[in-house]
């Protein structure tokens, strides 16, 4: 979000919390992209804020409740607030339990076990959700429309669109079992807490093979997750690289160093296998 939007978003979150009688006099920005993550103090509430219409906050709230009921390792909603979306000044605000971060970060073994528990719990929840192919369609729409990705070269537009289409076919032809997934269980969406790893940002949940989720995590995590189809994982990793590349070229993308990231992802796709994980690409760009 731009600074003027951040100011308004903070005001919306503090207003929502104050309306519930929660003591709030300050807000710390924890993360800023298309959504804003805040720590409200002194009430210690984790608030997530997005523009109305650019989120599926009600879906996220309902799903979080369902997953918590079956024992999934997800960040719970703020117990002092009604479990709903609060609308203020064009923003959708959701309120969650705040956890003090603990160190060290989540180990690969613990992350794999938590993700396995999440997937097991998700198999118990029957809730309408998008399919992972909807994400491919969104990426294809960005690539196909020069007005949405004006800085993407024509040759790269053809290359990226073709790669997305071919990967969709290849993955679907495998006919793998599908279930409810997190959608983006990368390290940025995993909290390290005294209660163990907890997953956040459930807006991205979709149905697909578990390898689609595993394509978002580090290789070391995959090594501890049982019964992976390595061929399918390789295709899903390539798919994730291609989708993220498309989003980084979208006009108005607010990802830090997004254009540089998009260029690097295109280079990786051209280079071919072995396919790196997203965290590997990120570390490469961040340097030593």
Record field, number of beta strands: 9
As laid out across the biggest beta sheet, the strand order is 1-2-3-5-4
Q: pLDDT below 50 for ≥5 consecutive residues: which ranges? A: none
Helix content range of the residues, please?
40-55%
Describe the protein.
The protein has 288 residues and is an alpha+beta fold. The protein is built from ten helices and nine strands. The protein has helices at 3-19, 57-69, 108-122, 132-144, 154-174, 210-214, 219-222, 230-248, 258-271, 278-286, and strands at 24-32, 36-42, 45-51, 86-88, 91-97, 179-181, 190-193, 196-199, 206-208. It has a five-stranded antiparallel beta sheet with strand order 1-2-3-5-4, with helices on one face. A two-stranded antiparallel sheet has the order 6-9. Strands 7-8 form a two-stranded antiparallel sheet. Strand 4 (86-88) and strand 5 (91-97) form a beta hairpin. Helix 5 (154-174) packs antiparallel against helix 8. The model has no long low-confidence stretch (mean pLDDT 93).
Summarize the helices and strands and which ones pair or pack.
Layout: H1 3-19, E1 24-32, E2 36-42, E3 45-51, H2 57-69, E4 86-88, E5 91-97, H3 108-122, H4 132-144, H5 154-174, E6 179-181, E7 190-193, E8 196-199, E9 206-208, H6 210-214, H7 219-222, H8 230-248, H9 258-271, H10 278-286
Antiparallel strand pairs: 1-2, 2-3, 3-5, 4-5, 6-9, 7-8
